[in-house]
Amino acid sequence: MRPESETELAEVIAGASAAFHIRGGGTRAIGVTTAAEVLETGGLSGISLYEPGALTLVAQAGTPLAEIEAALAAEGQRLAFEPMDHRGLLGTTGEPTIGGVVAGNVSGPRRVQGGAARDFMLGVRFVDGAGQVIKNGGRVMKNVTGYDLVKLMCGSWGTLGVLTEVSLKVLPVPETTACLLIDGLDEAAAQEVMSRALTSPFEVTGAAHAPGGPGEHPLTLLRLEGFAGSVAYRTGKLQEMFAERSVRVETDPQRVAALWRWVRDVEIMQGTGGDVWKFSVRPSEAPGLVAQLRAAHPVERVLYDWGGGLIWIECAPGTDLRPSGLKGHATLIRASEQTRLDLPVFQPEPPAVAALSAGIRARFDPRGMLNPGIMA
Amino acid sequence: MQMPEPNPAILARKARIVERLRSVLPADAVIEDEMETRAYECDALTAYRCPPLAAVLPSSTEEVAAVLKLCHEEGVPVVPRGAGTSLAGGALPTADSVILGVARMNDVLEVDYADRIIRVQTGRTNLSVTGAVEEEDFFYAPDPSSQLACAIAGNIAMNSGGAHCLKYGVTTNNLLGVTMVQMDGTVVEIGGAHLDAGGLDLLGLICGSEGQLGVVTEATLRILRKPEGARPVLMGFDSNEVAGACVSDIIKAGVLPVAIEFMDRPCIRATEDFAKAGYPDCEALLIVEVEGSPAEIDEQLGLILQIARRHNPVELREAQSADEAARIWLGRKSAFGAMGNINDYMCLDGTIPVNELPYVLRRIGEMSKEFGLDVANVFHAGDGNMHPLILFNANQPGQLETCEAFGAEILKLCVEVGGCLTGEHGVGIEKRDLMVDQYGPVDLEAQMAVKDVFDPAWLLNPAKVFPLAASDARRNVALAAE
Predict the structure, then answer these.
(1) In this structure, how many other beta carbons lie within 10 angstroms of the beta carbon of residue B9?
(2) pLDDT tens per residue across span A121-156
(3) Does residue A46 sit in the same domain as residue A95?
(4) Phi/psi at B117 (nearest 5 deg)?
(5) Domain residues for A335?
(6) B343-432: which CATH topology?
């Protein structure tokens, strides 16, 4: 099924008797749905409004991300939340869509400083499980008119409605970028360095640590962005802060971009055979958690992002890495379909919270038509 | 503004309800005396007043849970209240409701600089959150004008913004977790010191739900390191259009000021009479503030001033000292006081796409003549969040109604050009009946369905946000259950 308009999509859902597997570009399927029939959103495509002077962009949900990024680049702007490209990690092909980014609340390294996809969402239109077209939010920066269903839809993985149009806040591309590189830190020391950088007044827009580095050795990365004079100044300040370490500075824009793409897309775990988990935790607790997981499980690779708040972990296939009593949440991003059926892909919620989530699903999709089971 | 008739069955049971409240709270935490409940008869939307059945001031999440559980059993509506600074009537009681004030819950529970978080009880005032972390040079970013008085509870309920949210975002972008009590007394923890939700973004849903989904008793907030410095620049222009174009050009140029504030001539004149900040007498004035080290500030202001000069400003004034910076902000910060000094006023809060500023300002000027009431405009221009202040005389019969009608027309205009009814104050009772201008029945139904999940009996802050006609059936199910 590939409706060509919002009206057609609404009719399809209203008239359907069996559930749909909603698909944008099909590049980020992590949960497993019981629905057999695929409903593609690619027919709803195109940028409907772009006002660079108002920092807003409105697009049909099935618009290829690449098309949006190209339009923004032409005006010197970008999606500041730096959405990850899952294709390398998941081994998927296809063309990521903006709707998929929003449905998965997909962000990148800049999330730690600038916010997640959900923080840049201004408005949505979607078709709920009964086939009704619903709008929420709008295309202005500040909007508290009624409940914020925009945030609710962002990260709901198509289970509450099929997105038809999204409206986003965009930001200018900074004039300059630089990356500070520190070699050889152990994980606790790296966490401390990232934390000190992020609590400095120097606006660090990326803080990551790879214990296994790009070449076997631990590497810590800190990113700065802005006007040239300012980036140079802040680079100097951070070098002073970490004077006891040996700090290298990368200023070549291509190489800085490649380094952060390496972090964003978890390139270190691409093409490897293990399962990949993503943990969102309190940054200072990250090294301890990783040590605990290493002690209990065959952990193969680790990558810290968001100053330690995000941990990517690769382990042997089929391992249930999620510890009980985890403060934060763990999502199983890559595993065989069987493992993703056996283990909860998303963090199980305490009963009272799970009841609220289930209640909302029952209201937005009473017949269980949209990606049933995908967030179970 | 109409409010639902109080339920006589609840009024008749007042003694029993008060007795039960006393059984779960300390004696001084239950207020039922008719004189004392008057203190809770309104919030900052003072045109509407109604003393509640009783007011309670719990001191802990457990006490809040006990109060809500028994009110749920008794079928009594509960109106949560932070500091009562809502301009939208978000904390306006009905005669059959219990006001649940969180003012006594103002402790700091945890500060962790390394993880950049603070956890507080939500009765704490916005400014005192910053106060708690200032000694380490940190701050809490959302800064509503009422920040000295307003509580975090109300900030979360209304998803409050402020002058500096152009750079730092509003409450929802700075809220990481909550402890929330549902109407039936169930306590839930959502989010925490980590980023983003594991499942559905319930935190995003709760923030801005105007106290209708639960009572948030504790909050984990993101704190930030203060920038090395900040410096404002003042620019005067001879037309609103030119000032609007300048805002747009600054944004397009890739500078991200922390604030871009806009004042029009009526506002400039009123504040000059009141605060004598030495503002130029011109049609439109911008205050643009940037942050960083002195050299970084020079770099950004250099670019901003270069853009401003292309628009032939009648005045460009860069602060050379802290004193000059304070003078630049003085007029802006006294704008509301200045207006209150000359007249009663109603403060609107619609947001529009930035590029529509000149058109909307012109239309407001024309409408001002039609309605015969003066308007002064002062607002956050960078994000299009307007604050037209309509001046009226409350003692003159009919003027409040004319003012409200005028205000409604301005808000409809905001929606018409692609904006919204409220950017940071919330809907409350004030804009409740205009919701149909922004949202269709299906859109409102989807929002009300969320309330059905969190508060099936519609007892929490029931007559707010949604037009009474739209929520009627749901509220009356609760009544019928009496």
Answers:
(1) 11
(2) 999 999 999 999 999 999 999 999 999 999 999 999
(3) yes
(4) -135, 155
(5) 267-342
(6) Alpha-Beta Plaits (3.30.70)
In chain B, CATH 3.30.465.10 sits at: 110-225
Q: Which residue of chain A has the CA closest to B112? A: A284
Give chain A positions within 8 Å (CB) of B249. 53
- The answer to whether the Cβ–Cβ distance between A148 and B296 falls below 8 Å is no
A229 & A100 share domain: no
User: Given the structure tokens 């409907």, which residue do they identify?
Assistant: A48
A371: in domain: no
Chain A nearest-CA distance from B424, in A, is 6
What does CATH list as the number for B230-336?
3.30.70.3450
Chain A positions touching B359 (Cβ under 8 A) are none
What are the CA-CA distances from residue A237 to residues A205, A224, B235 (Å)? 15, 11, 32
CB pairs under 8 A between A and B: 270
B296 and A280 within 8 Å at the Cβ level: the answer is no
> Where do the CATH 3.30.70.2740 domains begin and end in chain B?
343-432
CB B346 within 8 A of CB B404: yes
Cβ–Cβ below 8 Å for A233 and B253: no
- Note whether ipTM > 0.85 here: yes
Residue A48 lies in a domain: yes
Give the sign of the dihedral formed by CA A45, CA A50, CA A52, CA A54. Answer: negative
Between A51, A147, A171, which is nearest B450 by CB? A147
Interval A194-221: pLDDT, tens: 999 999 999 999 999 999 988 889 999 9
